[in-house]
Amino acid sequence: MTALDNLLLLALLTVLLLLAGRRLSSLGWYLTILFGAQFAGLLMMGALGYGAPPVPSSLHIGVMGQVMQWRFDALSWLFALITVGAGLTSSWYLAGDWGRHYRQRGGNLWLLQLALAVNVFSMLLLLASGDLLSLFIGWELVSWSAFLLMALNGADAMRAALRYITYAMAGAMAMMAGLGLVLHTAGSLQYADLAAAVPTLSSPQLWGLILLFGMGFGVKMGLLPLHLWQARAYSETPGPGASFLGAVSTRMGLWGLILVLVQLVGLVPIADLAIPYTFLDARELLMWVAALTIILPTYTALRQNDARMLLAWHGIGQGGYMLLGVLMGDAMGSAGGLMHAFNYATYQAPLFMAVYAVRYRTGTSDLNRLGGLVTRMPLSFLVMLVGIIGLAGLPPMNGFVSKWLIYRGLINDGQPLLFIAAVVGTFGTILSVYKLIHNTFLGQLRLEHVEVREAPWSMTVPMLLLSAVVFVTGYLPGLVLDWVAAAQQAVGLPVLVHTLGGVESPLGSLDMIWVSSLMFAGFGIGALLFYAGGNRSKAVHQLDNYAGGHFLSADVRYQYSDHFYAGLMRHIGPLYRNSFQWLEGALGTTVETLGAAMRAFYRQHHPAIYLLAVTTAGLIWVIL
Amino acid sequence: MSIGTLALELLLMPLVAFVVGLAMVLMLRRIGARIQRRVGPPLLQPLYDVVKLYGKQTQISHGIVHDIGIVMAVGGYIAAETLLPVPGMDGIAAKGGLITLVYVLMVPMLGLALGVGQCANPNGSIGISRALTAMLAYDIPFVIVVFGISWHYGTTDLTRIIALQQAAGPAGWGAAEMPLLAIAGLIALHASLGKQPFEIYVAPAEIATGPMVEMGGKYLGGLFVMQCFQLYTASVLYTTLFLGGGENWILFLLKIFAVVAIPMTLAYLFPRYRTEDLVRLLWKWPVLIGLVGLALVMR
Description:
- The structure holds two protein chains of two kinds.
- Chain A is mainly alpha-helical.
- In chain A, about 70% of the residues lie in helices and about 5% in strands.
- Chain A contains 24 helices and five strands.
- In chain A, the strands form two sheets. Chain A has a two-stranded antiparallel sheet. In chain A, strands 3-4 form a two-stranded antiparallel ribbon.
- In chain A, a hairpin with a 2-residue loop joins β1 and β2.
- In chain A, α3 (about 75-105) runs antiparallel to α10.
- Chain B is mainly alpha-helical.
- Chain B has one domain (about 5-300).
- Chain B contains 14 helices and one strand.
- Chain B has helices at about 5-35, 45-55, 65-80, 95, 100-105, 105-120, 120-155, 160-170, 175, 180-190, 205, 215-240, 250-265, 275-299; one strand at about 60.
- In chain B, α1 runs parallel beside α13 (about 250-265), α3 packs antiparallel against α6 and α7 (about 120-155) packs antiparallel against α10.
- At the A-B interface, α16, α17, α18, β4 and α21 of A face α2, β1, α3, α4 and α5 of B.
């Protein structure tokens, strides 16, 4: 039994216990403890994060001449850490009051918990896969278990989940075709054989490989134009499920892309594939796909009026940063991409949790029906504040460090347009997350929310814990960069030389210990000037406000929330054309038309004539 | 460098920034006055204003975030000044660099936005929505400039960028080597100050001074201090990137005052742009000029 065996067995046991223990009271706490045990199991393999050799599993299965095996390397370990961490905090969040509330409102709590456990298990299995066959099986398990989580919440959720699974199946078909191609060209589905066969592949074969696997993993990652399913499906998933899926599920696609494109095929052969009649090669094409995945979903998020949708759209956009960073293939950019996957999970999960805490207390996440909650839910506000600073990529939170590395990588790489695209995405995020926090927590408190209280501790503690991680890994990015460097080494990327505080380089250094410390020193002086200077301030009621000479009363809605960026939208509004929706619709209609034609062909109109024609043709074929 | 010297620098840099910033506010008011054929305020008026605002008897708070917003707005700039090298003092410029500075500068903006948000006055929120839109507008040409500079000098370390320019003399200044980027940068930096003609987010007659609508006393005083820092930071950053930084304090002060005074003198003549026109203008001319400049730098 290796450490990996133990971990996978523990994850499987968790699923089995959930299956058997349906009637157990406080099942949620057992689940949390088991996730905690899985986390400890991962930490037992902690040496992987510091450059130790891969940990194999003792399980091997031979199928039709192919050997299926499982192993953990530093890359798997990093992603597994995110997965189990997200599972742990999500199950903690639902273990107490949120779970009871969910059950009271008619939700099937047991199924939700089971789906969470199944998701974590299947993701660990996927991350451990040691060849393309076990990868494919793991991939399908992950796809279907995500479906299980998405489909729990009524008709809308089911519709969104079905849309997801349609995309996922298309991706799976593409990946299966990719496997066929690998088997045909490399003669085996082992990683090593594929890697060895890459130099012998012709360009069309290599293109085929990139496109098929790119599509397979790209669906999960929500890469443009395969992203349409994601926001709706995630936002319809019940609270902790959404925070889990939002934090990590999509990253499985990134992991797969890194495995196939970077580790097995290698970025050099991809960069050698020129696209005829353009200045681009295949790597730059993918980088542009990543850049568009940053910009378009981010600016779609800007228009959302539901907090969950807003966050889910940002989730798609943030994936673009990760892919962009990894595809750069240099030490800084790829470290940024990998680190962003970790950082993003640490702030996206609590952001979803904060939104669901508000929903738990007020019953809505509609940004036009909230406001002023900071006075009632200060801890949730704090969590959201830390989360949005991370999401927007501002110092001193961890999101800044990974984005800094990506920007720096793009400058080193000499990619001005991609750099501008990445920064434009960041600005869009800043606008959008301010709207999120403003419309939820700032502004006027509504009359019906006057009695609202802070979310219970069972919910606030995991949120605050994750917020602390966002801050600490922003203050000491070296902690995560160690793991990232080990992952870089494992997939054959150049390794980032780093310090505890960031990066030291003649190209430009970053020392977050100094930067953050001085920011807090600055705030300290600012606070001193504010609180020590001048008279004590007197707090006034929110209706004691300037209103152009009118008196405000409790029934007056005095809040600016709808159409928040009206001026900007007057300029860029016409650019929102729903082209991808249109494309999806057109594709769906085409398939429907073809299906109807085929159905008409063999079933409805004049079957006798078709039968006669086919028989005649068959006879002619036999005779000749 | 010894700890003591560094600590002294870290204290002095924001202090100098504040004093110079006060002088810049005075200069701006005087420019405005002269254009309107007035005399303008006396020498110490900006200081009197700060003292007056802090000394007001009535201080109205709309909640803790309102207070913290002001603290962040001032404190963020105090921190940012230590990332900005001036003659004889580098502070921690080498540990942050250009990109970090650009992002640290957004923190006071965020603080202000949070503080205004809690005031529960839609005029303030509309002001912030406009200010953030303006940020999106002027920062796109500005990041083009940031990329051009970083590419040209091969580093984001501001101390090295200054050293490289000073070693080459005035002919090697950023403005001489990258004139188009310098023009784009000047327009973007001027827009970032939120002065005429880009002050739609204040628009007193329409949204009652926007973000300032619920600010009085030391809250407004904090914003006044923030404005001093903002003028100083923008001009020093521009001088660092394009005008070779400061060889000594006299030249340095001359450069930074000129950087604020010249565009302001021209800008006072323009009427205020609406938000969408502001976006259109800044996404068109400085972006175009900047992209052409970038192409020339990278050729």
